[in-house]
Amino acid sequence: MTRTDYPWLLPSEMIDPRGPELPGDRGRARPRRTVRDWIIDTLMFLLAAGIGLLALEASERAGNSDNIVIVDTIVGVLACCALWTRRRWPVGLALVLAVANIAAPVVGGAALVALFCVAVHRPFRVVAAVGGLSLVAGCLQAWIRPDPDTSLTTGIVATVVLVLMVTGWGMLVRARRQLVVALRERATRAEAEAELRAEQAQRLAREAIAREMHDVLAHRLTLLSVHAGALEYRPDAPPPEVARAAGVIRDSAHDALQDLRMIIGVLRAPGDEGDRPQPTLATLDALVAESREAGMRVTLDSRIDDPSAVPAATGRTAYRIAQEGLTNARKHAPGTQATVEVTGGPGDGLTVEVRNHAPRGEVPKVPGSGQGLIGLTERALLAGGRFEHGATGDGGFAVRAWLPWAS
After folding, report:
1. 217: nearest Cα among 183, 247, 261
2. Which of 108 and 225 is assigned the larger pLDDT?
């Protein structure tokens, strides 16, 4: 969150996160004056009072009666005291003081301060109207009650210069404040967007980790489930079959633990891929051999002459698709024939297809079915490819993916 180390040095309008007050903000609570506001208001009051005293002295030199001097003094005091309300009613106060300045020169200082406040807090059209009225009022005052020490022309020129100078100064202050508010809003927006990007990156990382854990562990755990179920329903199986099933369970559990350690290691040390190599298309033979050892009937038809020439990312995606296809075949069609077919070449892309025959008898529904296919669809799309899945004409099931392979 953007903040200021010394907020008491800023105007109250700049501390408010909503920015300077606009004419339509009628129900908006006014911010309290800061230390800077009190100092500026005091200096403005003293400036207006000093100009008023000079005008009062000029009125005495002009030979005006004591009654006029007394009235000028009272009007000047009231005008200076009214400046403390200029933050609440800047336009109204400036108009009243401009009109009073026609007959009372002692109001001139307070009128300039009020005009400056309007130029700071209001848009150009309002400033132009109030500034024009102040200019006319000042010229009339120089003609109705001229200074005895200066000519009419000099008084009018001095009035025009002062009004234009005060108006320009106030507009410059307003423009600077608007620039600061715009920069603050931009910084706040940039911080919010940075937080949003961080949250999105965390969400994408979590989704990637979830897909990777599913792809890695589902295959191993399915082997565990199948062979543990076989031992449960066939306790009288021959000892060699029991030993083979126990060996598959032990190896699958060991590999699952190794994969889990690798993923946890990546989570603990971002950017570290661990000691185990990532699977590629060249390790597809090992995956098929592992499935055959688990009792599946799998046929591998790979028409890739050199699997190591396939890009690592493409090969890893193809491996995960084949792994998920075999896992689904083992879960939903146990005991059936499965076929893994890999074709393609540089420039044509890489095609991976896993098919299995129709299951024999009724197969119980497996919890969480379909999540792996969703993950594979996202993985293929992220790689720039396509992914299709569905039932075949003979009652079986097939998954097919096409991945880009640059020439």
Report:
1. 261
2. 108
